[in-house]
Design brief:
There is one protein chain. This protein is mainly α. The protein has 22 helices and no strands.
């Protein structure tokens, strides 16, 4: 029954994506930004499903399992940063992308106010997008593999192969429109699955008794503040706010904003996005805490299966608490989370290849589809060979993109001119910081975004920006 339910939902997701064929236009703009005609509620559900990927279903649940209530700071900060972007940045992204007529985030970063695109900056930003988003997509495929291995004892390669085949199938059918339609359907299953698991866990351990059970296992699990915070609790929280702000550098999320039918509908999209995101975040943290209380011996199970303990929390809890049909739904929800992000990343990489790295193909619909296939193959190979946990893989890619692309785009959206050498220096500065930052006391995106902005401020303060050319 579990396998049947799982496969039925996967088939339904694929069918939704393929159904977008009836609205498809054989143009690169339609393939990459759905002709900027997507309804705001669809774009919002797609964005939130894309944001809440294997990181949430696997990584954050695992983090809550290991660290306890400290996970609340992580997700509360992330939500705060994300909300700030919806309030201040997303409408400008939508307006500017149409104003300068671009179909990729690297091109948006490289476009001057008159629409002139610095091809060097676009190419560098495109290479950054390609490298890190391909790794990010691999992390999603890896997350699906872990769940299938845990529940069905299938080889780790099966989930990655299955996920890659499905996302390529419906991405080929309708490009980003197929991705958005499928994400919207997947977001509903994701929420149903996580809520069902929380309700089942509460029937085993009432919420009022959960803190006591966690304290009996390890008193540090119910400590709100992490120990040994070198820079204090305020900066620890602010670091996670910047993690949420890192969405400004995620091409696979911003392209949903670029596809919304009108800038004035951004507020409606924001409402739907947060209406879904807040309860989902609460439920995810609760699942991690309940998994620790109900399955305290998860490490032994992980050692037996040679996977990370944190990545087994959700599938093991579902297997123990839910009837077979709901286990299938829960697994479909997890797999949906990974696919909703992986498909978005593959398409964003395709845009980076054809629009930014090799712009001579920017009007070729065929080249865009070939790029999707090639990037999917690269991500699949990485997923089959990588040995890092999903949480680490996602956070590394997220922070690198946020620190390299985000600060330059922030300046652009604020109307600032960014000469080529300044843009490149900002991207390099952000990448160096997130690569060398090793303190757990502050999430690396706080210094990773502030340093590039400081580089811009120094260039502006010394007159280099005013004297420099934008190309």
């Amino acid at each position: 029954m579990v396998v049947v339910t799982f496969l039925v939902f996967l088939g339904a997701f694929t069918a939704v994506g393929v159904a977008s064929l009836r609205k498809r236009q054989d143009t690169t703009e339609d393939y990459l930004v759905a002709s900027r005609s997507v309804h705001p509620w669809l774009a919002a559900l797609s964005s939130v499903a894309t944001n809440n990927s294997g990181f949430m279903f696997i990584g954050l649940i695992g983090f809550a399992y290991e660290e306890g209530l400290k996970a609340v700071w992580l997700q509360a900060g992330w939500l705060t940063g994300d909300l700030l972007l919806w309030l201040k940045a997303h409408r400008r992204v939508r307006e500017r992308s149409e104003q300068v007529q671009v179909a990729s985030v690297p091109a948006l970063i490289a476009a001057d106010n008159d629409g002139t695109i610095d091809r060097v900056v676009a190419a560098v930003a495109g290479l950054i997008t390609l490298f890190f988003l391909a790794g990010y997509a691999a992390a999603q495929l890896n997350a699906g593999s872990t769940a299938l291995h845990s529940l069905f004892d299938w080889p780790m390669s099966v989930g990655a192969l299955l996920g890659a085949a499905i996302v390529v199938a419906y991405s080929f059918s309708g490009g980003v429109r197929a991705s958005i339609w499928t994400d919207a359907a997947q977001s509903i299953v994701m929420l149903v699955a996580i809520v069902a698991l929380v309700v089942a866990a509460m029937n085993v351990v009432p919420l009022s008794e959960l803190p006591a059970q966690l304290h009996a296992l390890d008193p540090t699990l119910v400590q709100w503040a992490p120990e040994d915070l070198t820079y204090g609790l305020a900066l620890y929280f602010l670091g996670w706010v910047f993690a949420g702000l890192g969405a400004i550098g995620q091409p696979h999320i911003l392209v949903r904003t670029m596809a919304i039918d009108a800038p004035e509908n951004i507020g409606r999209a924001r409402f739907v996005y947060m209406l879904w995101f807040v309860p989902f975040s609460v439920a995810v943290v609760l699942v991690g805490l309940y998994a620790r209380a109900i399955i305290p011996d998860l490490q032994a199970l992980a050692d037996a299966q040679t996977v990370a303990a944190a990545e087994l929390a959700l599938p093991e809890l579902a297997t123990r608490l839910l009837p077979e049909f709901l286990v299938g739904v829960c697994l479909a929800g997890l797999f949906a989370a990974t696919m909703s992000t992986a498909d978005s990343q593959l398409l964003a990489c395709s845009a980076a290849v054809t629009q930014d790295i090799a712009p001579r193909w920017r009007n070729s619909y065929l080249a865009s589809k070939v790029a999707t296939l090639v990037v999917a193959a690269v991500a699949l190979v990485f997923a089959l060979t990588a040995d890092e946990g999903v949480f680490a893989l996602v956070l590394n890619a997220w922070s690198a993109l946020g620190a390299t692309l985000g600060p330059v785009l922030i300046v652009r959206l604020a109307g600032g001119r960014v000469p080529r050498f300044v843009a490149l220096a900002m991207m390099l500065g952000g990448l160096v910081v997130v690569s060398v930052w090793s303190s757990d006391a502050v999430y690396k995106l706080l210094p990773g975004m502030l340093v590039p902005l400081a580089i811009y401020g120094a260039a502006w303060g010394t007159g280099l920006v005013r004297r420099g050319s934008s190309s």
